[in-house]
UniProtKB/TrEMBL annotation:
The keyword Protein biosynthesis does not apply. SMART domains: AAA. Residues 3-229 form the ABC transporter domain. This is ABC transporter ATP-binding protein. PROSITE patterns: ABC_TRANSPORTER_1, ABC_TRANSPORTER_2. Signal peptide: none annotated. GO terms for molecular function: ATP binding; ATP hydrolysis activity. InterPro entries: AAA+_ATPase (IPR003593), ABC_transporter-like_ATP-bd (IPR003439), ABC_transporter-like_CS (IPR017871), P-loop_NTPase (IPR027417).
C-alpha cells in the first residue's frame, strides 16, 4: 500500500465534514473518489495535501513517518490556481521554486513538464490567453514540478473541452505507467469507469462503499437484457427477473442474461426480421451508487455538465 488513511474525522466548526474515513490505496493505481456536492471529497484531499491540518486520525504514506508527506504529494486544486499575467513557464518556475528547485534543474524540469502537458509551443504565452482546458493542464503541470509520487486531483476536468479532457486522461495513463499513484475526485462516474482501478463512494462525510471498480459492479449492480421487437415477450421471462418497459422495448433485469436471450431468440426463430434489438446492458457505476444510496449522484448533474461543456457534453 502506498497510502493508508485511518479513521480520519474532520470538522468545520460544528459541521462534521468527514466521519471516520479509512482507505488504503495501492502504489501505481488510479483511485477514484466519488460523491455528490458537499460529500467531503475536497476536505479529504486537502487533508492529504496538508492544506487542512486540523483533523483526527492517521495518514501514512509508505516509508514516510506520519506528517512528513508534503514533498511526496502533488495537489491539483479544484480552482485554477495560476497567475494569469505570467507565462506558463513562469508559473511552473514559481511552483518549482516552492519545492526547492533552482537554476538548471528548475529550467529542465519546467521544460519536461511543459512537454508532458502538451504546452511546449505555448510556454511563453501569458496564461490569460489560454483556453479553459489549457489552464487546467497547466494547473496539473504545476503540481508535477517536484516529481511527486502521489498526485491528488480534485475535479480536474470541470469546465474543459473534450480534447483537453482526453489529453488529461492520457497524461494520467502516462503518470501511472511511470509508477505514480493518482487520487482522482470527480462527479463523473464515466471518468471513474475509464480511468480508475479502485473507487470509494463518499456521501455525507462517510465512505459508503469502496473497492475495485469491477468488483463493485459485480457485487451491487445487476445486468439487464434489452429486447425490442414486434412479438410479445415469452411469458417465462418473468421468472428470470424484473421486466420493465424501456424505450419502446423491454428491459429484463437478471443475473442470467444468456437464458433470457436464448428464450427471446427461440420466440423469434421463425420470424427473425421481427426482432429489432437484443442486447445485454452492462450495469454502470452510477447504478451501484444508486443502489447503495437510493440517490442519483447529482441532482444538478445536467447543470454542471452544461456549465463544464458550454452546453456540449
Ligand atoms: N471552508 C469551509 N467552511 C465551512 N464548511 C465547509 C468549508 N468547506 C467545506 N465545508 C463543508 O464541508 C462539507 C464537505 O465539503 P467538501 O467541499 O469537502 O465536499 P465536496 O465533496 O468536495 O463537494 P464539491 O463536489 O461540491 O466540491 C460540506 O458540508 C461543506 O459545506
Amino acid at each position: 500500500m502506498l497510502l493508508q488513511i485511518e479513521q480520519v474525522t474532520s470538522w468545520y466548526g460544528k459541521n462534521e465534514a468527514l466521519k471516520q474515513v479509512s482507505l488504503s490505496i495501492s502504489k501505481g493505481s488510479c483511485y477514484g473518489l466519488v460523491g455528490p456536492n458537499g460529500a467531503g471529497k475536497s476536505t479529504l484531499l486537502k487533508i492529504l495535501a496538508s492544506i487542512i491540518l486540523d483533523y483526527q486520525g492517521k495518514i501514512q504514506i509508505a516509508n514516510q513517518p506520519n506528517g512528513s508527506q508534503k514533498d511526496q504529494i502533488g495537489y491539483v486544486p479544484q480552482e485554477i490556481c495560476l497567475e494569469q499575467n505570467l507565462s506558463a513557464i513562469s508559473n511552473l518556475y514559481f511552483f518549482g521554486r516552492l519545492y526547492g528547485l533552482r537554476g538548471k534543474e528548475l529550467r529542465k524540469r519546467a521544460a519536461e513538464v511543459l512537454e508532458e502537458i502538451g504546452l511546449s509551443e505555448r510556454g511563453k504565452d501569458k496564461v490569460m490567453k489560454y483556453s479553459g482546458g489549457m489552464k487546467r493542464r497547466l494547473n496539473i503541470g504545476c503540481a508535477l514540478m517536484h516529481g511527486p509520487k502521489l498526485i491528488i486531483m480534485d475535479e480536474p476536468t470541470v469546465g474543459i473541452d473534450p480534447q483537453s479532457r482526453s489529453y488529461i486522461f492520457q497524461m494520467i495513463a502516462r503518470l501511472k505507467k511511470k509508477g505514480c499513484t493518482i487520487i482522482y475526485a470527480t462527479h463523473y462516474m464515466e471518468e471513474i469507469e475509464k480511468l480508475c482501478d479502485g473507487v470509494a463512494f463518499i456521501d455525507q462525510g462517510k465512505i459508503i462503499e469502496h473497492g475495485a471498480v469491477n468488483e463493485l459492479l459485480q457485487k451491487h449492480a445487476i445486468p439487464s437484457v434489452f429486447v425490442k421487437g414486434n412479438q410479445a415477450l415469452p411469458e417465462e421471462l418473468d421468472r428470470f427477473g424484473k421486466v420493465t418497459n424501456h424505450h419502446g422495448g423491454y428491459l429484463i433485469t437478471t443475473n442470467t442474461p444468456i437464458p433470457v436471450m436464448e428464450a427471446v431468440l427461440h420466440r423469434y426463430q421463425d420470424e427473425p426480421e421481427e426482432l429489432i434489438q437484443l442486447e445485454i446492458v452492462r450495469p454502470r457505476l452510477e447504478d451501484v451508487f444508486f443502489s447503495l444510496t437510493g440517490n442519483e449522484l447529482r441532482d444538478d448533474k445536467k447543470a454542471l455538465q452544461e456549465q463544464a461543456m458550454g452546453g456540449k457534453w
